[in-house]
UniProtKB/TrEMBL annotation:
It comes from Pseudomonas segetis. It is a multi-pass membrane protein. Keywords: Membrane, Transmembrane, Transmembrane helix, Transport. GO terms for cellular component: plasma membrane. The keyword Repeat does not apply. The keyword Membrane applies. PROSITE patterns: MFS, SUGAR_TRANSPORT_1. The chain crosses the membrane at residues 44-65, 77-94, 106-123, 135-156, 162-184, 216-242, 248-268, 280-302, 314-333, 340-363, 369-390. It comes from the Bacteria. Residues 11-395 form the Major facilitator superfamily (MFS) profile domain. Pfam families: MFS_1. GO terms for molecular function: transmembrane transporter activity. This is MFS transporter, DHA1 family, bicyclomycin/chloramphenicol resistance protein.
Amino acid sequence: MHSVLTPSRKLLVLLMALTALGEISTQLIIPALSAIEWVMAAKPGSSLLALSVFVAAFGLGQLVLGPLSDRLGRRPILFAGLLVYLCATLWMLLANSMVEFITARALQGLGACSALVMARAIVRDVWQAEAGPALAMTVIGMLCAIVVSPALGGLLVRIGGWQAPILMALLVAGAIVLAALCFYRESNRQLDPQAGRLTKLVANYADLLKDSSFRALALTLAFTYGAMFAVIAGSSAVYIGLLHLSPSQYGMTISAIVAALIGGALFTQRNISRLGPDKIVSIGVSLAAFGAVATLAIHQGLGLSVLGLSLPQVLVTLGGGMVLPASVAGAVIPNAHRAGLAAGFMGFAQMAGATFSGVLLTALQDGSAWAMVFLNASFAFIAWSLFHLLQRRRRAAELAVQ
C-alpha cells in the first residue's frame, strides 16, 4: 500500500506549475500570432481561432477528466493528459497550415486541461479542509505565468521566430512531467467506481448545481474570466496594430497589467481563512467591474491610448486575482467526496466564459478596440450583477427556511 501523500513545498511548487501550464501555452504564443498568420498564409485575425479552440477543449475536457479522476485516480489522468499535450505541441511546431495548427492547438488544450483540474483536485485531496490558501498559491503560479509569459514570448519571437515560444512550452511541459514522476504519488484514496459513468455523471452534476452558492461562484468565475480574456485575446491587435507597440513592448505592457493578478491572489491567500471565499469574491468582482466600466468610459470619452487602456485594467486584473482562487476554493472545499467533479466544473465554467468571450470578440471585430473594451465591460458587469443577485436570493431562501 502506498503511503499517504502529505503537504510539502515540492508538491505545492509542482501543483503551481501544473496550474500554470494552460496559461503558459496561451500567453507565450500571443506575441507570435501575427507571424504565424503570415507564415501560414492565413487571413489576418484567423489566429484568434487558435486561442478559442484551445480554451474550448481546455474547458470541455475538465467536465470529463475531473470525474474520471474520482474513479481512476489523479495520477493516470494527469500523465495521459501530459502525454497528449507533448504530442500536440510537437505537432504545432511541424504544422504547415492554419487548419493543421488549430487542430493541434485543440489537442494541446485537451492535454493542458488535465494539468489544471488534477492540480485543483490534488490540493483538495492533500490539504483537505485547509485547502483555501494552497489553492490560492496554485493560482499565484498561474498568474506568475501570465505576467512573465507575454514578455518572454515577445522576446522569443524576436530571437527565434514564431516557433520559439512553442518550443519553450514543449520544454516546460517536459520538465513538469519529470517533476511529477519524482514528486507525485496517487492522492485520491477514496476511488468511486461509479464516477465518470454517464448516468452517475449527469446526476452528480445536477446535484452539484442545486447548490445556489456553487452556481453563484461558477457564474461569477465564468464572466470575470471572460472579461479578462477579451483583453487577453484582443490586446495584441490593439497594442501592436493600433497603438504601434513592438511585440516586446506589447509583452512588457501586458505583463505590467496582469501583474496585479498576483496582488489579488496574494490578498486571497492571506485572508481567505479569515474572510471566507464569498467575501473575497464580492470584493474582487466589484473591483473588476469598476475597472472594466472605467476602461469603456475612458475609451468613449478620451479615445484610445496606452495609459487610458492599461491603467483601469489593473483594477480588473486585481479583482480577477481575487475571484479566481476564492471562487474555486468556495466550490471545491465543501465537496471533498467529489473534488474532481467540482474542480472540473469550475474549470469548465472558467473556460466557457473565455470561449464565449473569444467567439463574440471574433464576430464583433471591426479593426478598432471597441469590441474588446465593450466585451470587457459587459462581462465584468454581468459577473458583478449575477453574484450579488444570486447571493441575495440564497440569503433570502435561508431566512425563509429559518
